[in-house]
What we know:
single chain; mainly alpha; about 0% strand; globular
Amino acid sequence: xxxxxxxxxxxxxxxxxxxxxxxxxxxxxxxxxxxxxxxxxxxxxxxxxxxxxxxxxxxxxxxxxxxxxxxxxxxxxxxxxxxxxxxxxxxxxxxxxxxxxxxxxxxxxxxxxxxxxxxxxxxxxxxxxxxxxxx
Length: 135
């Protein structure tokens, strides 16, 4: 990952709720993304682009369901490879981060007393635990 990209992501991580930032920073997503890129024989420049796409999803700028499309158009690889990369990243990066966030939220006593607004937002979001996080 380029220094500029790493710095930008670090600055944006600070703006996220504490639990989200902890889950992301402790996940090792940069190394995992690089390993996935190497597995699919991506160049260093393409791996940087892949890390950017993953970072944009982690920070909430892009939706995860658009990741394979964004990979396909940004890196210029075939759709099947982009879909395989996206699935592997979902399994190795996004799912563990989500599970980590859920664990951090469940053990934090601050979230034991939730308000009705958070409950409604949780239901509407389809089960997004981040609605319980302080902004």
